[in-house]
Amino acid sequence: MADTITELPVHLAERAAERHPLEALHEHCFDEGAYRQGTAGLAAACLNIVQTWAFGADNGGGVIPALGGLRESIFGGDVPDVGVLPLFRDQAAADGLPHRYRWHLLVACAAAGERLAMLEVSAGWGAIAVKLEALLADMLQLPLEGDALSERERTEIRIGGAVSRSVAWASLVDPVLGREQATGLTAKRTAVEKVAMRFSVNVFQALGQQSWSDGYAEGVRDAARKEAREGKKKAADEEVAGPAEPVIGDGLTSELEALFQRPGDGTVEAIRTRMLKTAVLVVKRSAVSEVVLKDLPGSLKSILGIHLSPKTAAALEHVREAMLHEFPHAGSVVDALMEGLADGQPLRLRPAVLVGEPGGGKSRLVRSFAERLHLPVATLDAGNCSDQAINGSPRRWHSSYPSLPLSMVASSQIPNPVIVVDELEKAGRSSAGSIHDSLLSLLEPLTARSWRDQFLDAEIDLSSVNWLFTANSLAGIPAPLRNRLRVLTLPRPAAEHLPALTASILRDIAHERHEDERFMPPLDGEELAALAAVWGESGSLRTLRRFVEGLLAARRHGVNPS
């Protein structure tokens, strides 16, 4: 048996002692309590470090104007002006900012909400994880004990922290990218660790959709606490940069390719290009007057001047299978709705109206489709609303409110939510107008890009909002509006579809009753035969549900359904 090693060899000890600027910055921000102040505290701490250097260095004076511009853009208003942040970063670099401090500016901009900066910070943490994995692999070749073994354990903790932060930042930019990042970075981990990482990604995505700033800050605090409990050493010198420091800007592609472990296939550059091209500036900050801005709700302020990344498609084949399982009679409709969608691409549904008999499950189908795509959904009953239900109302009114599409974008923080309008043909007309009038401009891409919101009194871009409609018939839908929609006819379900349809209804009933669906067995042959006899060819899922509820009641009372 080989002799154990209690002290790391010099070449491994030197590698273990290296600290990337991101690691040193994270430790500094944790020690100073910056994370407790949320993203504003994180951004301020990063800028303060660079400012201290600028005031003390002989060549730091040239960087001060760019730092002032960054600080004003991040803290000068209620919402950071993320559009100008890359310009100030480039200016600081051109004016002589040392390379190690550029990571500080990237983290500050990422904390302010700039998505490209988030992506580059994610790449930096990922490169750290890859480098530490190589170090750990070399350590595992040796029989370590004592201090050497403790150093190996600290390296494993550092890897976990770096992976978590890389996945967190990537997930906040794009959940699909976050999942891919987690897959690449955990390729060599154990099955248990992979499950834990998938859970971590899901948590970060959920937090990101609700309150990404609080979610990230809490995630980093948790990682830091774990590292502290393991006795992690404080960085000896914050300004020491590792020799293999990732490159900002043009080096982003190579860094991310290393993370995905697919160098040269173009995937990373494609993701980066897609994210830059598909982000949507829904509301320009300059378009909203100071008078309006003063009393604007916080949810609307959060999207002013922000390029929002659209929700992207994922696992579309599974979505199709699930839809056909739930709606076995509607294969043609499902395929039509999915036309043009592709995994990894923004979810942009072609406007369509689903026509079918009353009670046929039209509303249920379109809502289920949107939910399986993980898109937020709002439903509007055309028969009980006027155009103001979509348009909102002018601010001069005492009870004014924003348009429905803008409210959905603000609440979901994505530019492509789904709005379902039920029974489109029943929309009436009053002194306030009809929703048909509003929809004409919202369904036209050119006018939707510069649609005037009455509440903001400004032009906004709603061209990415997805619209789906249902109708019992096309009569009552104006021809100009019909021409903007694909007309999809929902087939009537038949007796052979009963097993799948009733299984779906049973799941719904179990969910509504807060019961475990496993304790609600499927209908047997005798029950299905009884259903087929009374349901006949009506095709109404509403009627079918009433019959299923009757069968369940008969079960409870021991009554034979025949």
UniProtKB/TrEMBL annotation:
According to the record, the signal peptide region is: none
Q: Which residues form the ATPase AAA-type core domain?
A: 353-486
One Pfam short name: AAA
| Swiss-Prot/TrEMBL GO biological process terms | protein quality control for misfolded or incompletely synthesized proteins
GO terms of molecular function: ATP binding; ATP hydrolysis activity; ATP-dependent peptidase activity; serine-type endopeptidase activity
InterPro entries associated with the record: ATPase_AAA_core (IPR003959), Lon_Prtase (IPR027065), P-loop_NTPase (IPR027417)
Q: Could you tell me the superkingdom of the organism this chain comes from?
A: Bacteria
What PANTHER family does this protein's entry cite?
LON PROTEASE (PTHR43718), LON PROTEASE HOMOLOG, MITOCHONDRIAL (PTHR43718:SF2)
* Protein's name according to its UniProt entry: ATPase AAA-type core domain-containing protein
Species of origin reads Ancylobacter novellus (Thiobacillus novellus)
Give the lineage: Bacteria, Pseudomonadati, Pseudomonadota, Alphaproteobacteria, Hyphomicrobiales
